[in-house]
């Protein structure tokens, strides 16, 4: 009788845990919108003006090339995650393929990027809010981090709901902008006559700064389009993880590329690109040019939504990355612990605190400490993408008969894509404006590699 009670009690506990686990999962609609909206941020709504002014109309080729790169990397990442059930994240892919040291470096580089992003987005959000509330930035920025931190600590479902609606605003705004732009091209609204060719060829050439400007603009473009890989982290924490993972890795790159290309093409066709102001939203400029009332206020709200969405995602992704490192013994063990709501609360808190430090460095030392943090993490995504390509090549070589590997001519693509990333890095080293970022990011790689070498005796070996 006693044994029966124990068994029933244990079954009840297991049922409660299972129920709790199911109730704290992301839904399919969360994943779809997080995957699509997670990449769309201030880099598109505001930063695209800098890329356009840097290259002119041929910037479309920069966006297309970057989009193809991301599409292929997402396909490769999906194949690796599906090929082995034991591999849970893209950092695990790198660790299994290239060894513990590479996994350590990739994980900490990725975490560093996102915690610096927490600070940058908090400052951006505070500046955007300052036009509506007369509160100093140094108060608004930490308040935003605190609020979003609480959102992440309540439950993953609450995070998913917030991200769903914030991402919905961004996606909906792009759909509306595209619709307005197409109507304007048809001549139904805006200044008449419509002169798309004249706007595009305002300097009588598609490459006013030379065709090499295509490569010069790619660093700016790739930083505005990065983040697709983070959707796989959210997919792994959903109810239908395997199905969502497959959908995200197959479709997200294509959808993001179409959104970016269509938006930038409409901007170039509807307004003289040479008259755009770098650092000012080209979307606002075009909407005002077309006579859309309240354009500035609407886009300010959309930009704030994009910033809050990125801040929300930054805390989520950085905390999950830190937890993943702790699970493999490559970060302090407390960071792997979950709350009763299945949230890695210590990782969320630690990432938010470091993000807060980053935000304050932006306020009190913008030209020294914060500038260094941005430079030290600015090009790490290129390095991580390169490691993912190499990892995919190793996965395919080790298990060529695995049905998960269906990408055609993968061997050729490995060479071309690796060469493209090296070319972008070389272009950054040549350009005075990007040289510091390239060297500082390489310094970050060396820094974490040294830490790993000094502490590797403490790390657990991860079986392939």
**Cα radius of gyration in angstroms:** 23 Å
Number of helices: 20
Q: What is the multimeric organization of the chains shown?
A: single chain
**Topology pattern, helix = H, strand = E:** HHHHHHHHHHHHHHHHHHHH
How many strands, what sense, and barrel or not for the largest sheet?
none
**Residue fraction in strands:** under 5%
* Uncertain stretches of 5 or more adjacent residues: 1-22
Return the average pLDDT rounded to an integer.
Answer: 84
Overall geometry comes to globular
User: Kindly, what is the distance between the CA atoms of the first and last residues, rounded to a whole number of angstroms?
Assistant: 45 Å
Q: Which structural class is indicated by helix and strand composition?
A: mainly alpha
Set out the fold topology.
Elements: H1 2-23, H2 28-37, H3 42-45, H4 48-55, H5 59-83, H6 90-98, H7 100-130, H8 137-154, H9 156-185, H10 196-200, H11 213-225, H12 231-236, H13 241-270, H14 282-289, H15 295-327, H16 345-364, H17 369-377, H18 380-398, H19 410-430, H20 432-455
Structure description:
With 464 residues, the chain is mostly helical. It is 74% helix and 0% strand. The protein is built from 20 helices and no strands. α5 (59-83) crosses α11 and α8 (137-154) packs across α9. It is globular.
Short description:
The protein is mainly alpha-helical. The chain is built from 20 helices and no strands.
Key terms:
about 475 residues, mainly alpha, globular
């Amino acid at each position: 009788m006693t044994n029966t009670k124990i068994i029933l009690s244990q079954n009840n506990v297991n049922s409660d845990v299972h129920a709790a686990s199911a109730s704290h999962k992301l839904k399919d609609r969360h994943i779809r919108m997080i995957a699509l909206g997670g990449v769309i941020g201030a880099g598109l709504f505001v930063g695209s003006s800098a890329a356009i002014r840097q290259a002119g109309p041929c910037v479309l080729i920069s966006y297309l090339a970057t989009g193809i790169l991301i599409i292929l990397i997402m396909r490769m990442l999906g194949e690796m995650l599906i090929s082995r059930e034991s591999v849970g994240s893209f950092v695990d892919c790198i660790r299994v393929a290239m060894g513990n040291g590479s996994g350590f470096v990739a994980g900490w580089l990725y975490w560093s990027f996102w915690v610096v992003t927490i600070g940058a987005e908090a400052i951006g959000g505070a500046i955007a809010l300052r036009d509506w509330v007369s509160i100093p930035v140094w108060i608004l920025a930490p308040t935003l981090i605190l609020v979003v931190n609480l959102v992440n600590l309540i439950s993953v479902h609450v995070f998913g709901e917030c991200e769903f609606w914030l991402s919905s605003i961004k996606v909906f705004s792009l759909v509306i902008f595209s619709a307005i732009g197409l109507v304007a091209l048809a001549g139904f609204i805006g200044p008449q006559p419509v002169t798309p060719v004249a706007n595009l060829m305002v300097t009588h050439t598609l490459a006013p700064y030379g065709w090499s400007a295509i490569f010069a603009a790619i660093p700016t473009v790739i930083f505005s389009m990065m983040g697709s890989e983070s959707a796989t982290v959210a997919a792994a924490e959903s109810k239908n993880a395997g199905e969502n993972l497959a959908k995200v890795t197959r479709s997200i790159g294509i959808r993001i590329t179409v959104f970016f290309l269509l938006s930038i093409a409409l901007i170039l066709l509807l307004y003289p690109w040479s008259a755009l102001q770098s650092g000012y939203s080209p979307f606002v400029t075009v909407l005002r040019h077309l006579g859309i009332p309240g354009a500035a206020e609407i886009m300010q709200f959309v930009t704030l939504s994009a910033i809050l969405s990125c801040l929300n995602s930054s805390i989520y992704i950085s905390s999950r990355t830190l937890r993943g490192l702790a699970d493999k013994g490559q970060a302090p063990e407390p960071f792997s612990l979950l709350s009763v709501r299945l949230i890695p609360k210590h990782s969320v808190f630690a990432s938010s605190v470091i993000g807060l430090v980053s935000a304050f460095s932006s306020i009190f030392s913008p030209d020294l400490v914060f500038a260094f943090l941005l430079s030290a993490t600015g090009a790490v995504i290129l390095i991580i993408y390169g490691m993912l390509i190499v990892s995919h090549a190793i996965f395919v070589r080790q298990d060529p008969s695995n049905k998960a590997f269906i990408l055609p001519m993968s061997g050729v693509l490995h060479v071309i894509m690796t060469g493209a990333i090296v070319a972008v890095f070389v272009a950054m080293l040549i350009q005075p404006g990007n040289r510091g970022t390239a060297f500082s990011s390489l310094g970050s790689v060396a820094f974490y590699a040294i830490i790993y070498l000094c502490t590797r005796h403490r790390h657990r070996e991860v079986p392939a």
